[in-house]
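Dear colleagues,

As part of the handover before I leave the project, I'm documenting each prediction I ran so the next person doesn't have to rerun anything. This entry is a single chain, and its sequence is reproduced below.
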Amino acid sequence: MTMNFQPDSIQTMIVEAVDAVAPQSGIVGIAPVSCGAFIYDGFDFDFCQSVPGCAPAVASGIKRVRPKALVFTYQNDIDLAAAGISEVIHAANRGENISVIYANSGNCGLNNTEESRIKICEMLSGLNKPVYITRVIASEKDNKAAVKAIQNAFKLQLENKGFSFVEILPISDDEESKEVKDLLAELPAKVFVDKHGVEKA
């Protein structure tokens, strides 16, 4: 698959996961606002641009008219946590058969707020419909857990299992720094929901 990203980027992890599950009926990604708005330039499959925060709603609509396609959102913390938290909650609560990839930089929010530190995995895991919710770490040294998590979410969708949510914390190589330790203490990497045991597969 064609891509034009840095080797350690989340976009590259998405490509690896797509290649692993090899969907046969098309792929549609939904791009966010802000720094991820032009993500589609690096992929060779279809992308759609949504208004701020509405990527899960757009993905839900696309999935209903193209039920066999792999449909996912790629959202950063400005788009998902600050602008669109209600949209992801409603999509999860409906059990939409889509995959949401959330790149949480932990440093962005609208109007100087701290929405990026909202514990979204914890919030969504209290709903009945999601089938897979996880938070993983990705660094230049190790992104295997993130690739596997995205792959799991895509696999479940292609099996028509339901809503999946993967939060990725992109961190520096210095995992022993106080900043990183504080972040991981507040947002621990763990599997919150795994109804079909994909983590054990």
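Residues 4 and 42 are 5 Å apart (CA to CA). The chain has seven helices and seven strands.

All the best with the project,
I.
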